Amino acid sequence: MSATLLLKQRHALIQQQLHADGRVLALDLARQLDVSEDTIRRDLREMAAAGLCQRVYGGALPLAPDGGTLTQRKQEAPERKARLAQAAVSLVRAGQVLFLDAGSTNLAIAGALPELALTVITNAPSIAMALMERPEIELIMAGGRVDRRAGASLGPQALRTVERMHPDLCFLGACGADADAGVTAFNYDEAEFKRSIAGASKAVVVAVTSDKLGTAAPFGVLATGLLQYLVLEADADAAHVAAFQRLGVQVLRTRA
């Protein structure tokens, strides 16, 4: 009985510290709670399995927010995403080849693209539809099986479509973004597709709302050192911003 109580107490204390500090380290927790690192690692695995955190090397981060289907995510914070989109498209130049993958923020970016001669590649039917009436934009759709929850074509056929393409800018949707954990996603197939197109692109741009900053999802997409631009809200946490900048990422902010 006492062991169960101690376990619940540890989990509660770990969760409190995770919310307060934005991350926890197994070594520090073991010292604070006077237990072994193995015990803490087991606690973190159990908490991660319960959806209370995301395990990362050496500790844990808050679990990235899961906004549900693309239709549901489009209804969340549209004004904030519109401001992110305006900051993101400041990187776009005439004649560039762009890749935009699925996501509600990337859909806002598609709508904010300037009236320039561009080529846009996408695996997202919603983005393709948003650009259908833009005659100055050459549109290339990566086909294949459509994952309705992700709102994207995924799998082997979609991968084959983009494997010979080398976009100037890749606008990559993210479920979580943390300087240590990098860019992460909830969907395994989506993470695989994102890795493929990011690796083929000349520069990668990730735009995220502040609730995704300092969080992680189960599947790794991109190490921070491979990210060129991070677009954040004006109120983004200064410590997170500095951590990305130390690793060479150029941070763009929305207007306050």
Oligomer, anyone? single chain
CATH class of the largest domain: Alpha Beta
Poorly predicted segments: none
Total helices: the number is 10
Q: Could you give a short account of the major beta sheet? A: 7 strands, parallel
User: How many extended strands?
Assistant: 15
Helix amount: 25-40%
Percentage beta strand: 15-25%
> Which strand order do you get reading across the main beta sheet?
6-5-4-9-12-14-15
Specify Rg, calculated over alpha carbons.
20 Å
CATH fold type of the largest domain: Rossmann fold
Q: How many domains, as an integer? A: 2
| Overall spatial form | elongated
Describe this structure in words.
It is built from 10 helices and 15 strands. It is of the alpha/beta class and 256 residues long. The chain has 2 domains: 7-61, Arc Repressor Mutant, subunit A (Orthogonal Bundle), CATH 1.10.10.10; 70-253, Rossmann fold (3-Layer(aba) Sandwich). The protein has a 7-stranded parallel sheet with strand order 6-5-4-9-12-14-15, with helices on both faces. A 3-stranded antiparallel sheet has the order 1-3-2. Helix 2 (26-33) packs across helix 3 and helix 5 crosses helix 6 (104-112). It is elongated and about 65 Å long.
